[in-house]
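so im writing up the methods section and need the 4-phytase record in one place, dumping it here so i stop losing it
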Amino acid sequence: MVVLGSAEAGVPNYDPIRGAILNTGASLIYDRLVEQDADQSFHPHLATSWESSPDGMSWTFKLRQGVKFTDGEPFNAQTIVWWIPKYKGTENEFMVDAIDHVEAVDQYTVRFVMKRPEPNLIFNLASAFMGIPSPKAFDAAGDGYGVTEAVGTGPYKLESFTVGQETVLVRNDDYAWGTDLSENQGPPHIERLTLREIPDQSTAFLELKTGGVDMLLDLPTDYLSQLKSEPDIDFRTQPGFGVTYMPINTQLEPFTDIRVREATALAIDQAAILKTVYNGVGTEAHQFLIASLPESKVDPKVEIRYDAARANKILDEAGWVRADDGIRVKDGKRLSVKLWTRAETEFKRIAEIVQAQLKAIGMDAAITVFDTSTIRDQYKKGEHQLVISTYGWNNADILDWCFSGKRLFYPNVAMWNDPKSEELNEIAMHQSHTGAEREANFRKYHEYLLSQFVFAPIYEPAQNMAFNKTRLQVPAVIRGPQLSQQTFVDLKVAE
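--- predicted struct ---
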């Protein structure tokens, strides 16, 4: 029994092509052409090798032979010819939009003919959204694919899925093509996995202590100190894979005024949140990208840091005057806003601290709590103003995902749609011909977003996973950027 992390809760399906969010289960059902390790190196999986032409206008992939989908269908070059065009018109199209078409050179060789060079192609092919489904099963199920049926070549098969509650997976006994990131390249040692969603983190931790679950994929850092008194519980820690932040709805008053956005962002005391909520474990966030990415190395002048004095001064200059109760007023209207958060304990605690920090500068923030599956539907109404949110992604193109004008409401919860921003996005995403160009272009885009205060950065967490060592044997070193297929196939029932 495994409890999914908070960032993975509320996944509506296991459709890797059309799904906007996926959880760990997707990496167990589907294989990808390429896998990524924790050091960001790339390793063969369903592709055994790949090569780019000198001008970057074509890529040739050799495919692994002897692979079958769990419905018995073969995996070969025709699978890839079918697969890539399926992304057209989906939210994940950006992963493959540099590919003009795919040619089957022979049964186990494909060539990607490019519209333009794409220095990020191998990362894209290794991402969670590039799992390869069975063409037969996918086409037969239509729009319903991924709920009652999800068929891949991965080490596990979907037995059942209840949205917002649990996923049950059973071992693929025919699996024989694991990667070199795992000791075990064959069928997993564990026959059956149940992935549960427990929004309340204290409840999840209690379940781990009492034996109700065997593993927590996302152990809040404030529980680490309690593990000393739990001899049966062990944990693993990995570098951060995302950032907790507060998007600001730039299309609703008072946040159409950049001065109010700036004051709001400067009111957030990252150090206080890190200490109070996370016991000092993790890192303060002062921009949007994880610190390990080169595109995160922005000009320090645009980093967003706590400065309550400046926040108060900005609001004074913007005409917001404190009333007797301490809340500011302008033109007879109080500075009252909505602050939304998800139901997980961690996010509710952050929201309460943010509420107090905003009150200190004269802003009244009313908190509303939504469960994870509901809040995404609520975004579509466009009524949110401030939101405690998070993402998990280790590439600069998360800036496109979260702030492109093409993705308003969700995932662009900030509702940011600005001509200069769109131009910088286009250059970074589609006009970067080399890795160096891409890095420089994304840094410019990142710096512009920071200068417009479309969000407030809060925290970059470490990844903590806890498990009952009397029930599970877990590798000492976790391969990959987060706990995924590479580790799950090596898990064993403790003897």
